[in-house]
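Final report, results section. Input specification for complex C-07:
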Amino acid sequence: MAYASFSQFLTALDQAGELKRISLPVATELEITEFADREMKSPGGGKALLFENPTIDGAPSPIPVAINTMGSRARMAMALGVASIDELAHQMQLILKAKPPTGFREAWTLVRQGIDLLHARPRHVPDGPCKEVIHRFKDGAPPDFTLANLPILKCWPQDGGRFITLPNVHTRDPDSGERNVGMYRMQIYGPATTGMHWQVHKVGARHGKRYYQRNEPMPVAVTLGGDPAITFASTAPLPDGLDEILFAGFLRKKSIDLVKCESIDLEVPADSDFVLEGYVQPGETRPEGPFGDHTGFYTPIDDYPVFHLTAITHRKDPVYPATIVGIPPMEDFYIGSASVQLFLPVFRMNFPEIVDIALPAEGVFHNLVFVSIRKQYAWQAYKIMHGLWGMGQMMFSKYIVVVDDDCDVHNTSEVLFRLCANTDPQRDSTFIKNPCDALDHAQTIPTIGSHLGIDATRKLPTEGHPRPWPDLLKMDPAIKSRVDQLLNPKP
Ligand SMILES: Cc1cc2nc3c(=O)[nH]c(=O)nc-3n(C[C@H](O)[C@H](O)[C@H](O)COP(=O)(O)O)c2cc1C
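Structure output:
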């Protein structure tokens, strides 16, 4: 199901009992974070919060703030219009495995997939709700509505200022014309100026580099709100060149309506709550940060590009979407988990022996990866580690632990048991060199470092363990059902 607006999604959350409305005046400086952090740390991710009366520097803001809207398995699935993310993962698998049909049923399934993919293509429309109100910034002089009017959060005490935390940043490759949408936080520098925190490995940074080389200003549009499928798609680790707008259309089974920006040559989703239009000037950078980050620590100040606004357009009754990041678990855990679940069929297509993958919350996205495999031959676990380290943003995975297929990778305690029981640390580990997450403060040199892979599978004689591998304890099924019956006697 596709949502016509972010507000419609919030109404659906409300009706499902997944939204708490907070009518008290709550400060956008730190206080919203404290409310949201308590909610995100409650079992299963708590509820979404809608702050109906946020304040900016003590003054009331007429724009409500919604936070933690995707911060549970149920809400993440609702955001993508399904009962469970498994449904979408299954559709991905069907598309990847599509073969010529051998019967009517298979032909029909293929036709339906074709229709879904057709919906993925965006539609170009002349106007949209995101332009109900238009503020142009002439000659750099801000009009009466600027970034200062948005209820943008200062998240943590040592943050360098206010940050837009859930922005969909739209850019275009100047050579191929290919579009990209990525989520990169934006520090507020002034009424019409922000930072643009696309890290060196991200597609926005690659597009930016091409504009710098051509010495041309880079048009950038940032959308906030709209159908949450777009917000999710902008976080998803799609391969460079795979269009997030197309992907969002596929997820929600309805084309995204795109409308031209007012002051730059880019198109954006027409249903957005806000559109910030502007440009990044080649070579211009400014210190960005500190920021209380996904890692649970402050990322220090570093130089990043600067975004200059040329216009803000918005709906008549917009809602400002936000998240906070910090010590896990946070909302981003559920967003990241949905990505892993959706892309599991892609991993499996490359490595059919993979049974399941989990990125536990403690690993903050890619610091820790558990993979279970159906092992057939010696050193297969190492093949999987190297394969994953070579796939897109999995390159950042600091620790990969490979276990056998009978271990539930979503049960961290079970994986740690296998890790402790099944490994000789020296024999069963490998260190490699790879690019690292730019946020990782532990690396000696930022953005590069070592990664550790641990093979916690049962060892074969050819893997340096000449003795027979012992059996894992398992109760006889007949005894189990006898005890079941003793405990719960059937009448
Ligand atoms: C809440 C949230 C905030 C994020 N902030 C940033 C950020 O500031 N900079 C960045 O490079 N990636 C950030 N990411 C990760 C990117 O959105 C993610 O890597 C995405 O796949 C990048 O898209 P791209 O591959 O099209 O560049 C964030 C992710 C989430 C969920």
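The longest strand covers residues 274-288. The radius of gyration is 24 Å. This concludes the modelling results for the funded period.
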